[in-house]
Amino acid sequence: MTSDETTTRARRDPAATWSGPVDRLTMGAVPAEAVNLNVTGKRLAGPLQGFGQLWQKTYRITLEGSEATPQEVVAAWKREFGSFWPKGAHFYAPFAEIAPGEVGLINNDVPGRQVLSTGVLVIYADDESFTFMTPEGHVFAAWITFSAERDGDGPTIAQVRALVRASDPLFEAMLMAGGAAQENRHWEATLRNLAARFGATGAPTTEQVCVDRKRQWRQAGNIRHNAAIRSGLWTMTHPRSMLRRREG
Prior knowledge:
The chain has helices at residues 3-12, 70-79, 169-197, 227-237, 239-247, and strands spanning 54-62, 89-92, 103-110, 114-125, 129-133, 140-150, 156-166, 205-212. It is α+β, with helices and mostly antiparallel strands.
């Protein structure tokens, strides 16, 4: 079956591209070195369920010098997703390729030889884009879409677009204190690594729009799910974590 036939079938059958209903997340097997916390049993939490100011962030890079099509770029992005992340950020996928309904585990290194563990659900995927939604306790309550497109006969443009709110008051404070800039650097580095995968040049661009400056104080209780707090407590009490820090 050709790529065009696959795309046509997917558009006729939403079940081929959209995740089914999910009440609580479940996590399959993960590598031995991964820390699996704050995923299993968590509900999804999109921007409507978050606490902080609502932002739309768009990161783009033009794959100058590459003949790769949008479909080729997205196919590689799905297969090798975690390999494009910068040092200190780890994405573990218990599947061969990102697909609707699958859950990915995220481990981010933080100061003190600690790790912040959370995850995402793939809510949509086709041959030109895929979208993640975050669970309770993630830094963001968000929808994040990864895509590629071509403007006429020009080179392919890869894009990350996120509609995000901080999940709770602690994460909002962390983002205001420099975490938001760090997040921008994360996706800019990801796009540079993706472009390099295709031998392309080009510099990433970042556009930020504050959609809603109000904070949703009725969601302040989300802090009970905070993945940083839960991961920190695990780090202090789990024997494996102590060994990890000694080896570091």
